[in-house]
Amino acid sequence: xxxxxxxxxxxxxxxxxxxxxxxxxxxxxxxxxxxxxxxxxxxxxxxxxxxxxxxxxxxxxxxxxxxxxxxxxxxxxxxxxxxxxxxxxxxxxxxxxxxxxxxxxxxxxxxxxxxxxxxxxxxxxxxxxxxxxxxxxxxxxxxxxxxxxxxxxxxxxxxxxxxxxxxxxxxxxxxxxxxxxxxxxxxxxxxxxxxxxxxxxxxxxxxxxxxxxxx
Length: 215
Description:
single chain; Beta Polymerase, domain 2; 2 domains; five-stranded antiparallel beta sheet; 3 helices; about 50% helix; rod-shaped
């Protein structure tokens, strides 16, 4: 009978030990799980934050820089162009002084000299105006020139300030070069057309009293 009691006692002790071990295991597991979670979360957060911050910074910087540059360039170019046009009195391009050969080539190719002279409607000033406009359309700077004659009579021609020969005057009605000099009669200043002996003096005094160049 004693041996039966001993068996039950042993079994009871074993059950208590197992139960105690299970309880201790759960407590230790909970403590370990919480500690591991906290450390893991903290470490993961730090590493993830650092990596995410770096990657986000790199990607954001690159995309932001590109987008900002494109937007800024487009807006700046538009605003700058508008301001440049306004400052340039309505021109969206730059005109330049030509060489002598460039000026001669332009005059030869321009067809304003073929227009018909009409007293009171299309006269010397209209020829000069149209040649100046056409030159500007080709990017060449060309000036409107007023030649003052005695008795308030005058004439209009054009001039280029060439970079190799200086001021070169042209008669826009004939495309001939006009070597205008104050004190000299204008008809004597014009180069003769091929096969033409020279210009006859007009009925009025065309002595050049003053040369007014308007750029």
